[in-house]
Write a structure and sequence with these properties.
mainly alpha, globular
Length: 147
């Protein structure tokens, strides 16, 4: 896998900036409020005896999982990363659709749930724009048309 050269088109830069911001905010929130993170993890996976150390490891692991596809897109112009991100962006949407009854029962929960399900889809759609497709097809090679 070769490192991509040349300028990145605006959809790639936008995807990178927003995804990195979201991942960093999740990391900061998880580490800044460790007691809440431990309580949330105890509720999600009660079989594990969660403590501060495990919460730090869990939060850092999710940050790494969020950032790896970004690196594959911006640094390597990896086409499979675009497909992976596109497929994984549909998971929150599918989860929302399976829980729509619960979400619609709580009006204050419905709108944020819809927005949070659509943000990954919108970010993935940036990777399928014309300039991004050209970027992936050329492997990130310098192209004056790509900006």
């Amino acid at each position: 896998m070769m490192i991509a050269k040349g300028p990145r088109p605006w959809p790639i830069l936008t995807f990178t900036a927003i995804t990195t911001y979201i991942a960093t905010m999740r990391l900061w929130e998880g580490l800044n409020h460790l007691s809440y993170t431990v309580a949330r993890l105890n509720g999600m996976l009660p079989a594990i005896d969660w403590n501060r150390d495990l919460a730090i490891i869990y939060t850092s692991a999710w940050f790494t999982i969020d950032i790896i596809p970004v690196i594959l897109v911006v640094a390597f112009a990896a086409r499979f990363a675009r497909l992976f991100i596109g497929a994984m962006s549909l998971a929150p949407l599918a989860l929302l659709l399976t829980n729509i009854e619960y979400a619609s029962a709580y009006p204050n929960f419905l709108v944020p749930s819809i927005v949070m399900a659509l943000v990954p889809v919108a970010l993935a759609m940036l990777l399928w724009t014309k300039s991004a497709s050209r970027y992936f097809a050329q492997g990130g090679v310098d192209d004056a048309k790509s900006t």
